[in-house]
């Protein structure tokens, strides 16, 4: 079966090169899939807004190609971006909130600018767990007051879609786009990638610019690719990674960025030392999921990996502490809102809280407990409790955690089932990649996650690609095309 549910970047570029398909035809096919299943059919509500210029942009790309001009490695490729990334076009940027329903950005986020420069067609904005799941302490994954409830195409209304990049995950799995951009503060790329049978890369904080993205935490926020294959995710990471003078975190990155595409070769697992972390998911897996994970470990060994099992990481209870995010959110969001266009009436977190209170029926289905907790902080990051917690997080996640485990056991990477372990990597600011590993008897997707130290995305891609190519687990959902 060839079409929006299975097309990948390499296939579509090759088809365009041969003249078998145009960018216009590609975009039309994906728009057709959105029409079938976004608000009717499976009613996935994965796309919160469609780009009205998408077909015009595709036609312009076709004119360029006819003259022998290729914009870049994503020429004519439809991509959805999470609706917390600024787009300087007719679409809004709202974080899924009715409070920002009329907000339009005046310039592209740096990630979006790089995608457009590479030839990608931003086909639409993806729904998300509202405010990237940092408004309420009990919000359902995939729900936003503006976009409604996003569903998982593998089991609409049955399987959790994951959060907070829920729409990004659902959209790619459902054939609404070839790939997507999600954002992660703690698990928000890895979770929906796992749940929608996708490859998700959560980069090292500082590898990808955060400029023009509605924030949560300066310490942990990052954008990253979500795609159906490791190759596609690597291609997109190659495009969006880079230094941005407006984002201090990117100035700390390594000056030479690796060629991630060179990692798309066999043999990545041969001789690789992979640490198996057991203590982070006790009681969290079903019988089928445990069986899939153990089968994945056997597959890794068959490909030549050396499994160091088990690896102990310090107290998983530290995962649950969100103090750093609470303190940083007010500072980060106030700065973002202060830079928005003057017609946006909400210039601070306090403004949004007041709006939500005045429109409780539509804005506060799940309350705003996290907003209120963040607003109660000083907004200056001078609290000793914040500084001590931030330093403790770094010690726990890096010095006593990931780096210690890697160095003490001479490991290339750590391995977790599903997206377990996302929090320790998030607090460290370190990279992870999730890759499909199979399905339960009910058809629920399940993946495995490789995690490494800072700026080891290339190594993780090599490991994940070798596993993916050896097992070829992923299959599309049963949706009408």
TrEMBL record:
Gene3D superfamilies: Amidase signature (AS) domain. Transmembrane segments: none annotated. Pfam families: Amidase (PF01425). Residues 25-418 form the Amidase domain. NCBIfam families: PRK06828.1 (NF005300). This is Amidase family protein. It comes from Alicyclobacillus fastidiosus.
């Amino acid at each position: 079966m060839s079409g929006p549910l299975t097309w990948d970047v390499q296939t579509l570029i090759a088809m365009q090169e041969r003249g078998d398909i145009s960018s216009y035809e590609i975009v039309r096919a994906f728009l057709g899939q959105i029409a079938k299943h976004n608000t009717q059919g499976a009613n996935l509500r994965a796309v919160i807004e469609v780009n009205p210029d998408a077909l015009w942009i595709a036609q312009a790309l076709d004119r360029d190609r006819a003259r022998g001009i290729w914009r870049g490695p994503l020429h004519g490729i439809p991509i959805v971006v999470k609706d917390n990334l600024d787009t300087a076009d007719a679409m809004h940027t709202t974080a899924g909130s009715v409070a920002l329903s009329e907000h339009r950005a005046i310039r592209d986020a740096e990630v979006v600018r790089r995608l457009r420069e590479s030839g990608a067609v931003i086909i639409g904005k993806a729904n998300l767990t509202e405010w990237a799941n940092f408004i309420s302490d009990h919000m359902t994954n995939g729900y936003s007051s503006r976009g409604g409830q996003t569903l998982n195409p593998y089991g609409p209304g049955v399987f959790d879609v994951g959060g907070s990049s829920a729409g990004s995950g659902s959209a790619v799995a459902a054939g609404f786009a070839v790939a997507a951009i999600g954002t992660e503060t703690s698990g928000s790329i890895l979770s929906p990638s796992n749940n929608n049978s996708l490859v998700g890369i959560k980069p090292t904080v500082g590898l990808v610019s955060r400029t023009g993205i509605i924030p949560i935490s300066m310490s942990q926020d990052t954008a990253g690719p979500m795609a159906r294959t490791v190759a596609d995710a690597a291609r997109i990471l190659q495009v969006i990674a880079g230094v941005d003078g407006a984002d201090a975190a990117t100035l700390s990155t390594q000056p030479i960025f690796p060629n991630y595409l060179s990692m798309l070769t066999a043999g990545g697992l041969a001789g690789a030392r992979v640490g198996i972390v057991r203590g982070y998911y006790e009681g969290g897996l079903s019988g089928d999921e445990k069986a899939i994970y153990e089968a994945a470990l056997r597959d890794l060994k068959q490909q030549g990996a050396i499994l160091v099992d088990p690896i102990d990481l310090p107290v998983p209870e530290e995962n649950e502490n969100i103090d750093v995010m609470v303190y940083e959110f007010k500072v980060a969001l106030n700065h973002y809102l202060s830079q928005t266009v003057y017609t946006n009436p909400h210039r601070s977190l306090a403004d949004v809280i007041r709006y939500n209170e005045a429109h409780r029926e539509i804005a506060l289905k799940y309350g705003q407990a996290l907003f209120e907790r963040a607003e109660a902080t000083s907004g200056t990051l001078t609290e000793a409790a914040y500084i001590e917690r931030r330093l403790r997080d770094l010690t726990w996640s890096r010095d006593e955690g990931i780096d210690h485990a890697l160095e003490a056991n001479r490991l290339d990477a750590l391995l977790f089932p599903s997206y377990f372990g996302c929090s320790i990597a998030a607090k460290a600011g370190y990279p992870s990649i999730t890759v499909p590993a199979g399905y339960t008897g009910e058809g629920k997707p399940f993946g495995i996650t490789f995690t490494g130290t800072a700026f080891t995305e290339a190594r993780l891609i090599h490991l994940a690609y070798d596993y993916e190519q050896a097992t070829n687990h992923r299959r599309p959902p049963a949706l009408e095309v």
